Here is the input.
Amino acid sequence: MGRLQGENRIKPRGDLCVILPEELPAEEGGILRPERYRYGQPIGRVLAVKDGAGFSKGDRVVYRRSRAIDLELGRKTVSFVRIDDVLGVIQNGNTG
Here is the structure.
């Protein structure tokens, strides 16, 4: 995972965590994917979260995208998500 500019300065307040959404490839099987669908998968890596949340920084999680607040930092987009909107932690690094 590449470093995100300002990553260490993000400190969510209250019951929020910060997630770096996984970006889908721009092209798959010769079909170009529109940019608006590249962040559609509700999977990402936790950049910041308070202790005792049930998951920790660096975990890969599934979360409720519809309630996330997105913020652009440099060339990346991060999502502020309520801890209760994190639906689960992905084990062994795969989704299937």
Q: What stands out?
A: The mean pLDDT is 82. The two ends are 21 Å apart (CA to CA). The CA atoms of residues 12 and 30 lie 39 Å apart.
